[in-house]
């Protein structure tokens, strides 16, 4: 879904183009190596402008409440949000 390491903290739009089934959802993390707060995108979900959307990291952890725009450091494919 995302390009690492060159895109770290440079992402302003996201699209989960994964396939339905296992590991179809993606968590976007505030910290490196899948650490800190995160938000989850379900399969097929997109946010074309994270800044305009005002999306923030919602899970407990470092970065909770921070804007997602230009703050994504890692991601992980998961079964469910």
Overall strand count: 5
SSE order, as H and E?
EEEEHE
Domains, number: 1
Strand content: 25-35%
Work out the oligomeric state of the chains in this entry: single chain
Ends distance? 16 Å
Query: Number of DSSP helices?
Result: 1
Helix content: under 10%
Tell me the strand order in the biggest sheet: 3-2-5
CA radius of gyration is 11 Å
Shape summary: globular
Indicate the structural class. Answer: mainly beta
The parts where pLDDT drops under 50 for at least 5 residues are none
Give the biggest sheet: 3 strands, antiparallel
What does this structure look like?
5% of the residues lie in helices and 28% in strands. It is mainly beta. The protein has one domain (14-78). The strands form two sheets. The protein has a three-stranded antiparallel beta sheet, with no helix packed on it. A two-stranded antiparallel sheet has the order 1-4. The longest helix has 4 residues, at 50-53. It is globular. The model has no long low-confidence stretch (mean pLDDT 91).
């Amino acid at each position: 879904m995302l390009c690492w390491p060159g895109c770290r903290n440079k992402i302003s739009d996201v699209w989960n183009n994964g396939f339905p089934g296992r590991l179809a959802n993606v968590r976007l993390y505030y910290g490196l190596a899948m650490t800190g707060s995160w938000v989850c995108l379900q399969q097929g979900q997109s946010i074309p402008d994270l800044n305009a959307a005002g999306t923030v990291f919602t899970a407990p952890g470092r970065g909770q409440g921070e804007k997602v725009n230009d703050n994504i450091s890692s991601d992980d494919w998961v079964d469910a949000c």
